[in-house]
Amino acid sequence: MSDPDRIPSALSRRSLVSGTVLGLGAALTFATPASAAPNYSKVPKLPGEIGRSDTVTSRFGKKKYEVIDVVISGDRTRLFVPHATPPSLTRGAGFLWYYHANGSSYAALSGAFQYTADQVVDQGMVCICPNYGGSVWTSETALQAQRNATAYVQKLWKVSVSFLRSNSGGGALLCYAYGKRMVPNIRGAYHASGVYDMEDVLLRRPESVLPAYGNDPAAVKATNPIYLPQSVWAKTRLRISGSPEDQVVPYEKHSARLYRRALPVAKEVSLLSHSGAGGQYGHVVPSQTNKDMLVTFQRWMTEGPA
């Protein structure tokens, strides 16, 4: 399988400095086929729905699901909804929340995240990737988009378990959302080559960070995940991956630092160190993280709540 998040070799140094390199796998888009009318027989039309594709059959489990785009308080969001898990407030449902890379969008669910999401629906879990306001890190816009998405989901489903997955720049929002328990019943999270310290990103690429925070460095600090108390990681599960060769999201300042912070109190935390080969400046989310995430989440599901 090809690397879903490889950075093109032709990427310019200027785009690296601007932060575009943190938008791994951002280019894939989704179009609703015109050949057939949307199927509402198994999954009814959702509030704010603006489109859905033909019914999809998963690659391995041959389970049917709907690819649905909705708008939640102005934030476009994509969901993979299995036919086995239509909206219900009486039956528990599992959710996998994806946090797209900086420079990417909600469409990453059909791009960088599609390989794993297609297999997760085999287990009856709903997959969701909001736009989170765009590439706006842990700004108030992103946090409000998370709050709105959570409220939207909880009005439709009884969420019995949630897992979180981020790539690259989406890691900061994952950390903040997990630490603040902004998503219900979190069982664990997979943080892939991800940002943890927003002030490190601010120091090295201010032009890609400050506009999202009203050009206020104090606002960046206020929602920087590194300042969450260590106690927020108590009874959490974290699988963290990264490359010591990464010059875009330096391993010691992000992946390894998050690992060290959570280690004394977490239920489980582990660090997967991998090569930076295939990614410009050593920044890459290798395809091995896909299988690793699926195996890890399946084990955590079996083990039950922390």
Describe the structure.
The model is unreliable at about 1-35 (pLDDT under 50). The protein has helices spanning about 15-20, 115-120, 140-155, 170-180, 200-205, 205-210, 215-220, 255-260, 290-305, and strands at about 50, 55, 65-70, 75-80, 90-100, 125-130, 155-165, 185-190, 235-240, 270-275. It has about 300 residues and is α/β, with parallel strands linked by helices. It is globular and about 50 Å long. Strands 1, 2, 3, 4, 5, 6, 7, 8, 9 and 10 form a ten-stranded mixed beta sheet that branches. It has a single domain, classed as Rossmann fold (3-Layer(aba) Sandwich). This is Alpha/beta hydrolase. It comes from Rathayibacter caricis DSM 15933. Keywords: Signal.
Task: Produce the secondary structure layout.
Elements: H1 13-18, E1 49-52, E2 56-57, E3 64-72, E4 75-82, E5 88-99, H2 114-120, E6 126-130, H3 140-156, E7 157-167, H4 171-179, E8 186-192, H5 198-204, H6 206-209, H7 217-222, E9 237-242, H8 255-262, E10 268-273, H9 288-303
Parallel strand pairs: 5-6, 5-7, 7-8, 8-9, 9-10
Antiparallel strand pairs: 1-3, 2-3, 3-4, 4-6
Helix pairs in contact: 2-9
InterPro entries: AB_hydrolase_fold (IPR029058), TAT_signal (IPR006311)
Signal peptide: 1-36
Protein name: Alpha/beta hydrolase
